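User: Hand in any protein.

Assistant:
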Amino acid sequence: MKYFDFHCHPVLKQLFSDNPNIDSFIYRSDVAGLPRACSDLPSIIETQTHQSQLAEFNDEVIVGAVLYSVERNVAETVIPLRSFLKKASQFKLSEKLLQDIVQNNNKPFSDFLMKRTLNEYLEASSSFHILTEESFKSALPKNKVNVFFTIEGCHSLVDSPNFCDATNKYDPDDILNNLGQVEEKVKVLSINITHLQQSSLCNQAFGMQVADSTVFFPSGNGFEDDGRKVVQGIFDRKICVDVKHMSYKSREDIMNEIDSGKFNNVQPLVCTHAGFTGVSFKDWAGHIQLKKPLSGALYLEITKSLHTKNNPKRPGCPTFNASTINLFDEEIVWIVKNGGVIGISLDRRILGYVDKHDDDPIGITGMERIVDKEYFSKSEWNVLGINDSEIGKAIDDDDCLFMNELEECTETSIPQRDEYFYDHLLNHIKHYFQVCKDHGISIAVAQKQITIGTDYDGLINPFINMPTVRRMADVKSYIRMNLKFFLKDFDNSEKWSDELNVDTFVEDLFYNNGYRFVKSRFQM
C-alpha cells in the first residue's frame, strides 16, 4: 500500500547504542521482567517505523524523518531507565552518550544532528531515497523509503548552550546559520520552534510525563523577540513552522502576528503530529476540575467530555485529551484556511486515551472522573485572562468519562477493546471535519489537508493493537470500513456524513494529501 507519515523517527532509537547500527532493532524482550510486567515501557520500546518494516509495503512510501537532538533534561531523565533493560541489552541505551549529552560533550547540532543522525540517512542509500525537486518528475521508487526532513526543536540547531535559563539563551544567528548547513545537504520541510524543555524563543506546552517532571514545567509567556527572528528566518528559507509543542499562547501569538502582517514571506503553518482538545479555547476552562499552584506552574486536571449533546453511542465513545499541547477548534480552522496540513499522531495519550493503570488516572482530588493532567505557565494564564470563575462550569457528570465506563470499554473483550482504541482515530477525523464544516470549510477542501503523523519511534505511548507501522494496513482498513458508520452515530456529523466519499478520503489521508503537500514544497 502507498503510505505517507508526516512525522516519525526511523533511526532515533538505534542512535542511542554504544555503536549505532540503524538496521538493528530494540525489542520488547530487551526490557527486564518486572518493568515488562508492570509498565508501558515495553510498548514504548516496541514502537517502530523501521525501514525494514516500511519495505514490506511494496509501494511508494514517504516519511518525514525527524532530525532531533536530545535535550539535556531529557537525557538526564532517560539515564535511570537503563536499569529497566536486561543487562545484556543495556548497551542499546549508552550511558556514556547520555552523560555526554548532559555535559554538552556531545554537541546537539554538530555531533548529534549532523554526524549521528543526518549522516546515517545520507550514507544508507540502499534503504533511503532522499527526496529532491527532481524526485517528483517521475514515479517515486518503491524499493526504498522516500525521505524528506523536519527538525524537532531549534535547540537541535545549536551547540551551546544545550539548555535555557535566565543566563543561557539560544542565539538566533547560530540557529539560522546552522540551518543553512543542513540545507546545503538536504531540503528541510518544517521546523518546531521548541520541544519539551524551556526555550528562550517561545514557551512550550507541557509534554513530558515522567516521575519528576518539574524541569519540564512551562514557565514562559508566548513568543519572545528572538523567536520571532528565527521564525522570519525560517519563512525566508521557504520552510514551514510546525506548531506542535508550542504553548497555546505561543501558537496564538504566531497566528495573530501573521494575520496582522508582522512577518514577510509567510509559509503555511503545519502541525505534523497532532491531537485535538475537542473544544474551543473559550470553553476550555469550563472542563477543568482542579487548578493548583505547584513548583512555579499551575497543575491542572481536565475532565474528559463525551460530547453527549451529540448523542454518541455509549459505552464505547472515545474522548479527547484537552491538554494544551493539542489543537483547539479555532486553531484547526486557522491552519486549514491558511493552507497548512495537520498530521494525526498515534500516541494514545495525545489521542485522548487514559488507561486505568496510568499514573493517577483520576487525579488527586479523590473524584472518580478520568482526567488529563498538565502543567501550565502562570504567566500565560494571567495574560490570557482566564477567569477562575469559569473553571468547572462545563462539567456535567453525565457527560464525563468515569472509571467504570472506561473499564467497560476495555475489559469486556479484546475485540471490543481494539475497536475502542481504533475509534479514537475516528473521533479525531470526525471532529476535524465537524470543526471545518461549522466554520464554512467544505468537506471537499477539508479532506485534502489532513494526513497521518504517527510520531512512531519518538518514545510515544502507542495503543497496544497498533504498536508499529506494520499495523497501518489494519488501521487503514478499519477506517475505510467503519468511518461512515461512526459519523452516523452522532447527531451533528450524521447531517453531513454522505458528503464524504470514504474510499477517496482514506487514500488521501494515508498518502495523497502528504504527497501533494510535500511535492508543492519542493517546487517552491
Remarks:
- The longest helix spans residues 414-438.
